[in-house]
Amino acid sequence: MTEPPEVVRNHKDSxxxxxxxxxxxxxxxxxxxxxxxxxDEKNLEICTLENAIYMNMKNDVSFLLDSQLSLYxxxxxxxxxxxxRDLGYVARQLExxxxxxxxxxxRLVKIPTPHFVxxxxxxDKQPEQRILKLSDAYERETAEPELELKVLMxxxxxxxxxxxxxRCKTLQGYSILVHRIxxxxxxxPQEEAVDRAxxxxxxxxxxxxxxxxxxxxxxxxxxxxxxxxxxxxxRDQMTFEDGRxxxxxxxxxxxxxxxxxxxxxxxxxxxxxxxxxxxxxFKEAVARIAEAFSFSLPEAExxxxxxx
Length: 308
Prior knowledge:
Elements: H1 6-10, H2 15-19, H3 23-34, E1 45-46, E2 60-65, E3 68-75, H4 82-97, E4 113-120, E5 129-133, E6 150-155, H5 162-167, H6 169-185, H7 190-203, H8 208-213, H9 215-258, H10 260-277, H11 282-293, H12 297-305
Helix pairs in contact: 6-7, 7-9, 9-10, 10-11, 11-12
């Protein structure tokens, strides 16, 4: 098997950014999300921060349109810290936006309305739509947080959010391409799986223009992202297993000291936090915890609800 091109090891752009780096495709995506019909590309100003890198990839696109500052980001693995990351990102953007204005003036300084969207296509099961909130990270819960930031996470895996993908053919094509690469990679080498998926998409008119023009670059990006995805999956699985065992051990140790039921509840708290962070569904977490700690499903559900 030949070694992947050098660009795979050094590349910093994601395939998502490649597909949506032009104003035409960004307008298409914006219109699909907001049910608008903008056509004049001159009204859109791309303002992506080029030094914003996550997991070795630049995977964000931000732009100004209609007095709105939109930050679109692609994620191949679930990240509950997106609101906190976006808070830092938008702060830098707004600092640039207001650089020539005085924030100490008696006149109100107007800023564009921020809007945050994450396009998720990881392997962990996630709902079609989900709101991630900055306040979820607060150590002390409050009914009315004074600082809040909400991120709309959209699942764009094949078969999810069909109406949205129908309205944006570029996003739909991306979803199809990734789905085929993953499917074929189960039965053949990665390079062959990517090449097969790209050839099929070209024949079927899916992302055909960009795949023809930048086939080498697309294949390099796809291989890089697939390898990153596999490494993340393995790392997360190891972290999850270590955390689960730690939670169970803590529970049983405290159970020996304080009585099994009381100690197990301490372990459940740790395990529930881990399951939630990993994106495991509430139902699945309850089932696993019930089995690990010898609780009935109703008892486990009652305990997990306290920490979910």
